[in-house]
Amino acid sequence: MAEKMEEGDPRAFEKLYEQAVPCLLPLACHMLGDRMEAEDVVHDVLLGVIRSPGRYDPSRGSAQAWLAVQVKSRCLDRLRKRNRTVLRGESEEAPAVYAPAAQPETEVLARMEREAVRSALRQLPGVQREALAAAYFTPRSHKELADAWQVPLGTVKSRVRYGLGHLRKALDRMGWGAGEGGDGHA
User: Where is each RNA polymerase sigma-70 region domain found (predicted)?
Assistant: First the structure.
């Protein structure tokens, strides 16, 4: 479908719209709490795709995930703008704050984020991937890891730090980091 969109095929855009809106609109509605504003965001994102179909890179993930990131980013931008407006006193109505809920669109976005992190982890050198996994998913301290691996404590800390940096860059390349307008919590 991406190739047909690059060629400007109107049916490809219609198909994209029909497939994307049912997934993207609930996400935007959940984030913004306003269906009309959510429709505007989804429309703007899809209009951007129509205007510049070459921005999507299939090697960085599925089109659906890429579109969800674009919608999430636009929603966050609007929420930030709302907060600035409220802070300046231009609106008496405070923005709605939503607690995480087990709604389908939230679960879909969380699943896509997990897939992005897994994919980014696979891109890391083995020692960095191992250091991140051990540091965050085992109850062992950096000192205990250094003793177990028979390396200096500084080496463990460096592997974790470099691993996090490379992970952040990989997520940015996939559109999940703060560099792409995301919230940086991928």
Answer: 16-85, 120-169
